[in-house]
Amino acid sequence: MNAGRELWTWAAACAAGAGAVLLAAGREWAVLGSAGAGADGAEPPALTGSGIVSFLSPVALAVLAAVVAVLATGGGARRAVGAVIALCGLGVLAGAWDGTGRGALAAAVEANLARAAGGDVALDAFTVRWTWPVVAAAGGLVLLAAGVTAVLRGPRWPGMSGRYDRSQRGPGAGPATERALWDAIDRGADPTDDPADAAVGDRAGASAGAAAGGAAGGGPGDPGAGPSAGSGPAGGPARGER
Fold this sequence. Notes:
The chain is mainly α. Helices cover 61% and strands 7% of the residues.
């Protein structure tokens, strides 16, 4: 797999991981019982992932922004952004683990459901719906792996600025190093000139030089070249000779 394809595969994996976290954050993670909840057939109160772990959605959105930053940067900056993505993945894993614990559920009930239900919610009667916490944890694992990958291999991936520079210099041209620029100046060339224009100028100068040399030398094929000064008409002897 070449570097460009690897970069876009990595970006797709990050988007999938962040999407999984966003999806799981909006789904029900736990259902809590209340006094008389089953008597009238009403649905028991439920808590979503964002209601239990409030930072899940902001972390997923931050990862999507970090993916754009990786595409636009390179080198050390790309490693730093990859480290941030890895930390976001660790945060999602910690949130998915802690969000299914009794302490986090009790705090979420007190903050969201107990006040709305008039204090009738039983904090010790709840059922965790493990599907969505597991989805969030899987998304966190993907983000963690993607962040580590960006730290290790990110500088090898192409960036937007590098592609623009190559298109400006033409196909097959390598990066213009500082040493190459100074060498061009030492040779008397202007490194800011377009190579195509310089080649046209060189050909025009060579043609003009050849034309000037031919006119000055009067070669054998020159129509303007007459008989020599020492010869008479029709190749006869010069006047005064016998």
